[in-house]
Amino acid sequence: MQKTQSEFELEQDLIQRLTTDLHYDWVDVHDEASMKANLRGQIEVHNKLQHAPLTDGEFERIYLHLTVGNTVFERAKVLRDYYSLSRDDGSTKWIRFINKEDWCCNEFQVTNQVRQYNAQQKTRKTRFDVTLLINGLPLVQIELKRRGLELKEAFHQIDRYHRDAFWVGSGLYLFTQIFIISNGVNTKYYANNKSLSFEQTFFWADKENNLITHLHAFTAEFLKPCHIAKMITHYTVLKETAKCLMVMRPYQMYACEAIVEHVQASARNGYIWHTTGSGKTLTSFKASQVIMGMAEIDKVIFVVDRRDLDHQTAREFNAFKKDSVDTTNNTRTLVNQLVDTDTKLVLTTIQKLNTAITQENHVAKLAYLQDKRVIFIFDECHRSQFGETHRNIRKFFRNSQLFGFTGTPIFAENVNMTMGIEQTTEMLFDECLHKYVIVDAIRDENVLRFSVEYLGENRTVNPNHCDAILTQPTESKTVLESETRLSQVVDYILGCHDAKTAHREFTALFCVGSVELLIRYYHLFKIKQAERQRQNPHYRPLKIATIFTYAPNEPLDKESASDMLDEEDVVLPESKGPSSSRDHLDQFILDYNRDFKTNQSAKDSDSFRNYYVDIAERVKNREIDILLVVNMFLTGFDSPPLNTLYVDKNLRYHGLIQAFSRTNRILGDKKKQGNIVSFRNLKQNTDDAIRLFSNKNAKTIVLVQPYNEYQIDYREKLQALLDIAENPAAVDRLYTDEEKEAFVKAYRDVLRLRNIMNTFIEHSDDNLVVPVQMLEDFKSKYLDIYDSVRRNQQGDTAQSSPLTDIDFELSLIHRDDINVGYILRLLGEMRDMPDDKKAERKKQVLDIISGDTRLRSKQGLIEQFIENDLSQLKQDDDIRQRFQAYLDTEKQKAIDDLCEREQLKPDVIRRMIETYLFEGRLPRTEEMAGALIHSPKILQRKKVFANVSQKLNIFFDTFIDGLEGL
C-alpha cells in the first residue's frame, strides 16, 4: 500500500529540485549566527570584494545598517537601496544588497529547518521549513504541509511566525518579501504583509491563465532564480501610505510586461482586458512606473474619463507611491504639469486634457510636446465621449502611444455609436495585449460569483405578493412607475435587506432608471421607515443616501437613455439646472447632513465633488446601508463591504457586468457571493452579457447554484457532522485532537452552507432538517474548542496540536449588530415584562451571548448584572449608564484580585492595560517580568510568565474587547 508523502519527504524533494534542476546552492544555515556569517560572505561575493574582504568592523557597520529598521516595510526599502560603506582604509564603497537592473545577477541559495530561538527574549522555539536566500538575505520563505492537509494551515503557521519568530534576534526574517505555502497539490504565494487574509494569497498561472498549482510545476516556473528575483525587484510594490508590500498576481505581471514590451518594440496602441475587480490600478501603476524609467519616454499621462473617478484613482496611485501623482484641479494646473519636465507622470481627466490641447492659450505652451514620445494609459478605454477627444489626442500628440484598460470591451455586438460612427475597443486601441476574463477571476477566487434573483419569476414571494414587482424591459412607463409597484419594491427591500447583507454587516446599491424614479423611491423609503418606527419603537431604520447628476433641460424620462451606463456624462449641478431635480437633491443633502453631522451641498462643482467623496467614504466604512443612484457609482467604484445590488433599471452588456461587479469584491469568509435582486426581467440580458465577456459555458461559473442545490449540499454536510457527533452532548466524548479536528471541520462546512442559504428568499429555518437550537448548541461546542485552542496557545507553554492551525472562520459566526449595546437594549425591554416573559428574555440573551465569539467571555459578567442590578433599575434609569458603572466597579475588583493573587504591581498592570487600550498590543515578556513583586526562580519563570499572560488575556477578553457597542 502506497503511503502518503510526509512533510519531511515533501521538503527534501523540493530542496533536491531547487539544487539540481534550478541550480540553487545548498548552504548549511541553521540559526541566526550561521545566517549572519553566510550573509557576510554573500555580500562580499555580490559586491565583488573577494580580493578585499570586509573587516569585522566594516561588516558590523553594514549589519547595523541592515537591521536598524524594525518593520518589513523599512527593511524592504533598505534592501532596494545602496549603502555607502566607509572602509577602514579611508576609501568608500557602495554596497548593493540586490541587483534590480540585472535581476538574474544575484546569488541564490537554499537552506531548511532554520531554528529561531532567543533565550534572553524568551521566545518560542521555531523551525522554518525552506528558506531561499538571495545575496545571503532570507527573501523567500516556504512553508509546507503534508498532502491532504488544508493549505490554510500553512498560512496560519506563517501568521504565528509573524507574532512569535520573524522579529527574534536581529530580525533577519523581516527581510522576507514573498511567502509560499504548499501541501504538494496546491501551492500559493503572497507578499510579506501580516494584515493580509488567506483570500489574498494567489495561485501562479501561465500567460493563458492556466493555473500552476502542483509544487513540482510551481517550483519549475515560479522559483527559477531569474523569475523569483524579478518578482521581488519588479513586481513587488511598496505601498507607501499603508507601509506594506504588495506582490502582483500572474495576469497583472503578464499585462505589465506586455505593455512594456509593446512600448519597446512597437509604435502601435494596445489594450488590456482584465475583468472588473481584478486590480487594474496596481497593474497600470506598475506599468507606468516601468515606462517612466525608460530614457526614451518623455511623459506618461494617465487618463480617467469620468470626473467622479478622478479622486479615487489619484488616491490609489498615491497609495502605491506617496505623492507620485498630483490631482489636477483645473486645466491651468494640468498644463503646468505637462510643461514641467521633472513631472514625468500626470493624472488627469479626459475632459481637462481635451481642453488643454484645443484652447489656443494652452496649445502654445504645450507645442513642444507634440513630437515627444508620450505614453497614454486610459483607465477605461471604451467610453462614448471618446470620439472627438480621441481624435484630438491623436492629432495633437503626433508621437504618442495609447494603452487602455477595460473589464468590458466594446465588440460589434455591444458597439457604441459616437457621432453616428460605430467604434469598438479594437478600432481605437488596436490589439488586445492580455486577457483575464471574469471566469478566470472567479476560478482564481479573486472575485466572487453572483447570486441573481428575478423577483416574481417562477414563484410567489410572500408576504408582499411580489409577482407584480417583476417587469419586462419593454413594459410601459405607466406599469414601471405605478405607485403600487414602487411601494411593493420598497416593502420587499425593507423586508429582505438584513438577510441579504448579513444583518447590515454589508451594504447595498439600489440603481433605478431615472432621476424622477429615484426621487419617488427616496420619499417612499422615508415614509415607510417612519411607519415602521411608529409601529415598533425598537426598529432600526436603514441609512438611505442618494446622489445624482442632471443636465440643463433634462428629460423627465431618462429610461431609454440609461440602458448603457456610459451614455450619461457626469454633468455637475449648475444654477440653471431644473428646479425640480435641484430642489430635491438639496433636500436630500439636508437629510444627509442631519444623519451624518456634515455640511455638504451641491451649490457648485467643487461642493458636489466633496459630497461625492464623502458618500464614497461612508459606503466603504459601512455607514450607509443603501445608496440610491441612477448611473453614478455603477462603474469604477470599489467597496469590498458592498455585497448587494437592487436593480430597477434596464441594464445590458458592459453596463450590466459593470453594475453587477460592484458587489463581487472579496472580503473575508462571510461574503460568499455578490447578491443581485432584480425587479426587471433581465435574465436574457444577464445571460447575453456573461456569454459576451467570458465564454459560452461561463454561466455556471459566474452565477451561483440554485438554492435547492445548496440545500442538498447542506444535508450531506449535516449528515457528516451527525456521523461524528449525533448531538451536541456527544462532542464532549471526543477526546483526541484528531476527533475534535474532524468535528470542527464538519461543523464549519455546515456553518458555511447555512450562511449562504440565509441569503436566499426561499430559505426558512424549516429547511435546516434539525432544530435551530441544536445547531446553536453545536456552535457553542465549536466555540468551546476554539477557546481551548486559544488558551493553549497563550504564554510560553504553548503546545502544538492538529487543531493549532485550523481556521475556525469566526467571521461566519460573528454579527456586527450583536454587541453589548444590543444586549442592553434587550435587557432594557425586560423592565415592563411579566415574570414568565422575563425568564424567556433572559434565556434568549444568554443564548445569544454564548453563541457570539466576542461576548462569550462576558457571559458571567452580564449574568451577574441581570441577577443583581437589573431588578433595581427604575423606569427613568439609563441602562447603559447603569451597566457602565457596574462594569467599572467589576473591572477594578478584577484588577485588585489579579494583583493580589499573582503578586503583581498595580501601577504596572494599569500601564499594561492602558497600552492595550491605545495600541492594541499584548504585554511583552519583559514587561510582565517588571510587573512581578517577587522575582521567580529561573526554572519557574516560564511557568509564572505564562500564567500571568493567560490571566491578563482573560481580563482583556472580559473587560475591554468587544465593548464597542456600549
How much strand content do the residues show? 5-15%
Quote the distance from N terminus to C terminus.
Answer: 60 Å
CATH class of the largest domain: Alpha Beta
Mean pLDDT: 84
Number of strands: 26
Strands in their spatial order, largest beta sheet: 1-4-5-6-7-8
Helix content: 40-55%
Radius of gyration: 31 Å
CATH 4th-level superfamily of the largest domain: P-loop containing nucleotide triphosphate hydrolases
The major pleated sheet works out as: 6 strands, mixed
CATH architecture of the largest domain: 3-Layer(aba) Sandwich
Shape: globular
Uncertain stretches of 5 or more adjacent residues: 457-468, 552-578
Helix tally equals 34
Give the class from helix and strand content and strand pairing.
alpha/beta
CATH topology of the largest domain: Rossmann fold
> How many structural domains can be distinguished in the coordinates?
5
